[in-house]
Design brief:
307 residues, Beta-Lactamase, 2 domains, 7 helices, rod-shaped, disordered C terminus
């Protein structure tokens, strides 16, 4: 069937096959690349959030807690707890549409507040930070009943001695804190100990959705460009190849029927022009051969008449 197609149709089919095969072959690589780019972009935002929460914690420890420490014996004030401040600020931040899908947790094996208790998956991350002292970041995907999530985690260490006033041992902690949270969790900490893993997460579908959006956009642009190329190639083929070939074919057919007055026009110096030049030489050779035949035929006729 391909042999029965015209030249322009063959070129169109060939270019369409190249487009389909090219997009198919590069689709997997493009998808993986865009997925990784989406992960890197979201991870960058997540790390910014972790840095922001770390700054909130430091502000609370250095400027809020010292001002309210005298009142802790009378009444426990959660605003003096850096983890509380970080969580509250993050919840305010989540009210903005661009951060609504993000979640923040300071997962600890030995937390003061049970809401920060690490699950089995988070405990493994925490233990990695304990064992691998140079490990500064962990990222990946995990499965939850509500769907897969992408997470990024960093170790959280005790950097200020003021934190030990509440977390060294129950005897040193404010009584109002003990009354609220008990004397079992959040104690025995030392300076520079890693006590939790700061984890920011969001649904994995958001990462995949972002990658797919980029994929569709790029594939759409490439397809549009390639379709424009097919149109331009067909236009060029029509003007520079097909129409000249049709003219040469038409002239050749007229010459073959004896109309030697027509001529092959050489309108270019490319292969089509060389073809027209070759046909023109062939026509001249044919005219010379026809003249010789006429002369020969005329001479023989004269001799026969005299006889």
């Amino acid at each position: 069937m391909f042999k029965n197609l015209k030249l322009r149709q063959k070129f169109t089919v060939l270019l369409l096959v190249i487009l389909v095969v090219g997009l198919s072959v590069s689709g997997l690589a493009l998808s993986a690349l865009l997925r990784q780019n989406a992960i890197n972009e979201i991870a960058s935002r997540a790390l910014t959030l972790i840095d922001t929460m770390t700054s909130v914690r430091e502000y609370t420890i250095t400027q809020i807690t010292p001002e309210l420490s005298d009142k802790l014996e009378e009444k426990f004030l959660p605003q003096t707890v850096s983890a509380y401040s970080a969580r509250e600020v993050f919840e305010i931040l989540r009210k903005r549409p661009e951060y609504r899908e993000f979640f923040y947790k300071e997962a600890a094996v030995n937390p003061t507040n049970l809401r920060d208790k690490a699950d089995s998956f988070e405990t493994k991350i925490f233990e990695r930070f304990i064992k691998e002292k140079n490990l500064k970041e962990v990222r990946g995907f995990r499965s939850l009943p509500g769907g897969d999530v992408f997470y990024i985690a960093r170790p959280l260490a005790i950097k200020q001695e003021s934190c030990l006033q509440c977390h060294s041992n129950p005897e040193a902690a404010p009584k109002t804190m003990i009354e609220r949270f008990g004397a079992t969790g959040g104690f025995g900490w030392n300076l520079n100990d890693i006590v939790a893993a700061q984890i920011v997460s969001l649904p994995a579908s958001k990462v995949i959705e972002k990658a797919h959006q980029s994929s569709f956009l790029i594939v759409g642009i490439v397809s549009a460009v390639f379709i424009a190329v097919i149109f331009l190639v067909n236009l060029f083929l029509q003007r520079e190849v097909i129409l000249p070939l049709k003219r040469i074919t038409r002239v050749a057919e007229e010459v073959s029927t004896g109309h030697l007055e027509v001529d092959f026009d050489q309108i270019s110096n490319d292969e089509i022009g060389n073809l027209a030049k070759a046909f023109k030489r062939m026509k001249l050779s044919l005219e010379m051969a026809m003249k010789r035949i006429r002369r020969t035929h005329g001479g023989n006729t004269g001799g026969i008449g005299e006889t």
